UniProtKB/TrEMBL annotation:
Name under which the protein is recorded: Diaminopimelate epimerase
UniProt cross-references to InterPro entries, sorted A to Z: CntK-like
Superkingdom in the source lineage: Bacteria
Species assigned in the record: Actinomadura craniellae
Annotated Pfam families: CntK_N (PF26317)
Length: 282
């Protein structure tokens, strides 16, 4: 088995994309093993043929969740390979294909907004998107951020969802600073992410509903970068009808996984190096 792959860093969120077809029931286990072998990788997505004629490709995330950063990474990679700068992508978790526009290293893409309105959970707010739910906590991140995020998810009843995150957020001048932690049920992972596009979109949604008007916010990520996130409200100002994010994508490496006789996964260069060959047993 030979698996073609690329490692990209959309807004610093190190993402592994697998371009060789992998059966859906094998994807979570494979992703879990890859992330265990490469601690720098925060998430894994599998690129598949689209199921609708209007779409250019399909991104199936490791736990069936929606991921804005990974979708932006795929759109950038396709444009880099000669595809049009405007892509229409199917993304797991999203009920309809999303638009993604690439301009240099910047990708602007739609975020699928859920029909249900945000709700309060204690002194936090639950914002639901298609494919992922985020709990927004208006506070600085604690020192043990993963443990505290797990407590928030458990108390709020969100651990049972396919994908849910906790986004600690606070104002920082004209920006909003976030610390996101994302739980994916299928892989059993709880990751303090370097950046989170969907979490940034949820921050924009919350701000737009508080102001009652269309809103664009600069969201400072843990890795130091900024995601520009926007939300468009309904005519009565009580709901959000659209959201977008803009992410900058950097290529880290690309290559091929080759079969190995030994059990498990071996090797792998640091993502800053372009050339790498991982070895994975069938």
């Amino acid at each position: 088995m030979r698996l073609e792959y690329a490692v990209l860093a959309p807004s610093g969120n190190v993402t592994l994309l697998i371009f060789t077809r992998v059966a859906r029931d094998r994807q979570p286990v494979l992703a879990e093993r890859l992330m265990a072998a490469r601690r720098d990788i925060e998430q894994v997505g599998f690129v598949e043929p689209p199921t609708t004629p209007a779409a250019d490709a399909r991104l199936q995330m490791m736990g069936g969740e929606f991921c804005g950063n990974a979708a932006g990474a795929l759109a950038w990679y396709l444009a880099r390979g000669g595809r049009p700068n405007r892509q229409v992508l199917e993304v797991s978790g999203a009920s309809v294909p999303i638009r993604a526009d690439t301009n240099g290293d910047l990708v602007e893409l739609d975020v699928p907004v859920a029909v249900r309105a945000p709700r309060r959970a204690g002194n936090a707010t639950v914002v639901m998107l298609d494919g992922i739910t985020h709990l927004l906590v208006g506070d600085a991140p604690p020192r043990a951020v993963r443990a505290e995020a797990h407590r928030w998810l458990r108390r709020s009843g969100l651990l049972s969802l396919p994908a849910a995150g906790v986004v600690f957020h606070r104002p920082r001048g004209a920006e909003i600073e976030i610390s996101p932690v994302v739980h994916v049920r299928a892989t059993g992972t709880l990751t303090a992410e370097s950046s989170c596009a969907s979490g940034s979109a949820c921050v924009a949604i919350l701000q737009a509903l508080r102001r009652g008007c269309d809103t664009v916010v600069a969201v400072r990520q843990p890795d130091g970068g900024v995601i520009e996130a926007g939300a468009r409200v309904s005519p009565d100002g009580r709901g959000v009808i659209a959201a977008t994010v803009s992410v900058r994508v950097r290529m880290c490496e690309e290559g091929v996984f080759a079969p190995a006789g030994a059990r498990g996964i071996r090797g792998g260069a640091h993502p800053g190096r372009r050339r790498s060959r991982w070895r994975i047993s069938p």
